[in-house]
Amino acid sequence: MSEQKRLFLVDAYALIFRGYYAFIKNPRINSKGTDTSAIMGFMNSLLDVIKRERPDHLAVCFDKGGSADRVEIFEAYKANRDETPEAIKIAIPYIHDILKAMHIPIMVKEGFEADDVIGTLSKQAEKEGYKTFMVTPDKDFAQLVSENIFMYRPVFGGGYETWGIPEVQKKFEVTDPLQVIDFLGMMGDSSDNIPGLPGVGEKTAKKFLAQYGSMENLLANTHELKGKMKEKIEGAKELGMLSKKLATIMLDVPVTFDAKDFELDQPDIPKVTDIFEELEFRQLLTNFQKTFAVAPETNTVESSEGTASTKESLAKDIKKTSPNAGAGQFSLFGSPDDTQETEEYSSRKTAETTSHFYQSVASGMATKLFIKNLMNQTSVCFDTETTGLNPLTAQLVGMSFSWEVGKGFYLPFPEDKDEAQALIEQLRPFFESDTIQKIGQNLKYDIKVLAKYNITVKGKLFDTMLAHYLINPDMRHNMDVLAETYLNYSPISIETLIGKKGKNQLSMRDVSLEKLTEYAVEDADITLQLKEHFEKELGEANTQKLFDDIEIPLLRVLAAMELEGINLDEKFLNSLSEQLNADIQSLESQIFTQAGEEFNIASPKQLGDILFDKLKLVDKPKKTKTGQYATSEDILSYLAKDHDIIKHILEYRGLAKLKSTYVDALPNQVEPTTGRVHTDYMQTVAATGRLSSNNPNLQNIPIRTERGRQVRKAFVPRDENYTLLAADYSQIELRIIAALSEEETMIKAFKNGEDIHASTASKVFNVPLEEVTREQRSNAKTVNFGIIYGVSAFGLSNQTDLTRSESKDLIDTYYATYPKLRAYISTQIDFARDHGYVQTVLGRRRYLKDINSRNAVVRGAAERNAVNAPIQGSAADIIKIAMINIYNKLQEGNYKTKMLLQVHDELVFDVYKPELETIKTLVKTEMENAYKLDVPLDVDLGTGNNWLEAH
Known about the structure:
CATH architecture of the largest domain: 3-Layer(aba) Sandwich
Structural class: alpha/beta
Shape: globular
Distance between the termini: 73 Å
Number of strands: 26
Radius of gyration: 30 Å
């Protein structure tokens, strides 16, 4: 052992979350019903570090209450984080008890993050001559690295890697690790909600650091920048400095490194044993006891609970681990000579350890023979290798094919466009064959790439990403995760071929044919194996029909819509941006006048002090955990009706967000090669079955405010020969819940074509239909839609002018009026409790793992999902059927009209004017007849010179 003492500081939550997600596919539930996944995952990881490194000193560092200082200067810091899973909340007290029993110090300070605690302790220990290893995968810690401070990172592929100064310099392309702060500040961090500089990603941040060395120096020299980048950065100097401050790990947390307290000591084995037995950690207990045995042990035991070692499962961030993997053990307090090599840990299969035959195909006769063989197959997996991720601009580098497990072929493509087109022509019979099934992972991308070469992929399709989405919608669906989870196989990473992102990253054309063959054919081979696995699971989950009849046909529809894109009126957006600027400045002036002073409206602390200290708008204002006044949207919305300044502040926030998120951002998302905006529809994101839209997200464009609606004006037809048609399902979710609940009164209202909200108001307020007031209709509408989302009396009173007791009476009357609706809600919740899932009219499942939770808040959220998911999911399924049918009719009729957008319950078309009346009839007919319910589906149509007019 070296003379210099070593301190290991563990980032607790980083390892707890990794542990939890390692078991997400098969959570560890003990006989008491407790989800122990997070505890087991963390302990596996902690023991792994101890066994590998045998540190002299060790501590585990936790967050408590978030970072008060960061939230004070930026309220939205980490505001986009999902709620902590209940299994992790349950785990924390147990982990604390285990660490105390192990005599491992827990370092935590209210109002500070673990990053700051680790940063402070590592610098203190460095002054006392210690070498410190920060056990975390979080790249932010790289800023702390010095001659005696290192990162100890779990890595993909198993094991750990140590980052010292050279590794940080290479990874971030900096001269000093402190520049990592500038790097993070420039590019921002979506996970922590650090905004960064607009338009600056990893590549640009590294370029700026190479040129200017720091954020301050960049901002001082913006006159050297050009074009839009100059405008963006000059307009965001304060944002840049704020981002840098948010990214800086604090080194002055009131904690103290006391070497004696941090010494790794013999644990209280009986006490740890009691806790592990309570949790039913039988094999983990054996692992623990051998690790800390006084006498040397050389026996090998199964790793944690019969799963693959944490070295594997956590380092790969996988969702399922393989059974019965062996793990090397050693006695922490025995002699190093008595220990077994850590290499004895079982590892996943890889290309190096698995027998396979992957072959590249030469040009000429070899290609002809290969294609002849290809055409004799009935089912083939293929994958494209391209020059980039944008299918609209990417060029083919090669294609891989596999139709037998462990075997496959790689066909390289020449760089010359004419030669590449000649080669693809040879493959045309394969792609356009109706009798050969095509298998792939994310086939929509491949279809879009091939469309640029004028190739249409025909025949039956099988997309492993879509199949897995139907089998397990809440899990990730990328190929590496699926291979590790279902095949216990680690694919070759793309980084081993082209390097990590940055200026030194290679193009796929730069990779040797031998390496590219191994990488590309492996993808096809593994995808083929996944297909064989998922075919069985689709049947077991009764989702094969949903896969064959909806998700796979929809894939082709979405590919066509994405390739088509939509026209954008950039001049209009520029003028709207100027108007918004003027409105924002006007609101700012009004707010300052009402406040009696100028202040930073975006600062929660300053805003809170103005509203609640100076203006004293409420007697007992709410405070955050850190002690400052709470100024979040929900709190201010509640006060807005009584205070003009708050109305103006909410309006100010809304306009500022609208301007930055849509008005200024949309023109930057026009594809230069087409002059149009091409959103990417994701089929595998929303667990309910709804599509999501990215780059840009066209489904979240605000519609409730006048200014928000103006954004839709920017979306225009192809040219003067076309007009936009918007087709919108009217109240489809209410119609579905009426049909599923078999509530006759509501069904009758829909069949009679009544205004459902007025009809509801007439019944619950006991007045004739013609005497229903606007206020009564509005309240009934709120309840109608609120029921789907489990509205409470408190929630209803917040959304209306009703008191809480009036809201309760209204909800009680509503259920008395529609008794079958209440019975349906109860039935759905009971079904979910018994089966663990609910399903749509077409059998799409939504799994609800918290439906039997002991935590009332968590259980309540799952119960609301049990009611809402089948309604929202059925609406999603129905519009998908309509899209498929309309697309097929447009193809069959050879119409010039194109379907462009899907936004929840609405479809938007670019209609060739001479076809308008025919298309209106076609669209309305197909949408209203997409699925037969006991309630008629109704579709509203509108046309116009822009999307707003049409809507």
